Amino acid sequence: HPHPPRPRRHLCPRDGAPLGTRADGGRDPYLELRIAPGVEVERLVGQGSMGRVYRARQAGLERAVAVKILRREHVRNPTFVARFLREGRVAAGLAHPNLVVVHAAGELDGDGEPYLVMEFLDGLSLRSALVANDGGLPLLRALHVVLQVCAAIGEAHAHGVVHRDLKPENVMLVPTSGDVDFVKVLDFGVARVGEADSSLATHAGAVLGTATYACPESARGEPVGYTGDVYSIATMLFECCAGRPPFIGNGPVDVLIAHATAPVPDVRSLPHGANIPAPIARTIHRGLAKNPKDRPENARELGQALLRAAVESGLDLGRSLPRPDAETSPLRLPSTTAVVGSGVTRSVPAAGSSRGAS
Are the C-beta atoms of residues 304 and 151 closer than 8 Å to each other? Predict the structure, then answer.
């Protein structure tokens, strides 16, 4: 049989985690599993509450791919299954260099766990980069990363897709031959597709999103549109510049209340953000407006506003970057510096990662 079933006896019936036995010495039952034509699992590279991510080899093309498998205990939960399948479906319908590529989807023989086959990203998350740099990034590096996020999400917005869970854990920085911080945006599991989308994932979005980066309308349980993603991107840029998010609290509820009601702090009022140029600070503040109508309308507009602010601030332009509209000639910004050390959030010790699913 080309896809032999997994031995269920090696998985915990409570949480689906691999179990060791005297016979196999604790071997992960997914290893060496053939999950699709020519795709063989090699090693675990990350895991989280939703799933496990493995590096695999695709024969014929002779390339590394990432295989994301939904945890076994979630297989009978329609909400988790819907979110998992939505991630693959939405990502597969978008094409942009800064968006993760999904190659295939299916179900494993045996217990029927859904899986996604994606491009393998050998890098680290923006969260890891922040941790490695005492919570923040130099301004030029932060702009370089966030402008790419704006380009990627701007493409999603152009196709009617709202991400709704943008956060540093969902932004991967992948070194390439010409860019040590090439961005890949991940996880469209709670995305909204079109104005008429009334799926279960739409209603679950405010719950499944992360409080630190939630827009005020999400905190109030209201529908989230393109400007909600704009708010999340502005929150990430604020954190990169100030070394901490704009709103913190003793728990998620406190943070959500602050998003909805507390005045937006000036990034320059914090020690790490004291030297941020005023045009950049004003653009961040606009992206964090309580009223969605006061923010840039979509991620492309936010990116364009940041580019204008960079020029107004007299920043030295030195290297080609993709424009937020991903259509016309590139703007030139300074080179960035590679981060040294730090692993991927919740990953096991291994070289490279395609992110531990959350």
Answer: no
Q: Which of 165, 179, 181, 229 is catalytic?
A: 165
* Backbone φ, ψ for residue 353 (5° rounding): -160, 150
What is the Cα–Cα distance from 9 to 28, expressed in whole angstroms? 12
Q: What are the respective helix, strand and coil percentages of the chain, to the nearest 5?
A: 35, 20, 45
Contact indicator for 124, 354 with CB cutoff of 8 Å: no
Model pTM? 0.78
195's tokens: 């104005």
Phi, psi of 85 (to 5 degrees): -70, -35
Rounded to whole angstroms, the Cα distance separating 311 from 316 reads 8
- Asked if 134 is an active-site residue, the reply is no
Strands 331-333 and 319-321: antiparallel
Tell me the CA distances in angstroms from 146 to 5, 112, 325, one per residue in order: 43, 38, 13
Q: What is the pLDDT of residues 235-280, one digit of tens each?
A: 999 999 999 999 998 999 999 999 999 999 999 999 999 999 999 9
Cα 48 to Cα 346: distance, rounded to the nearest angstrom: 7
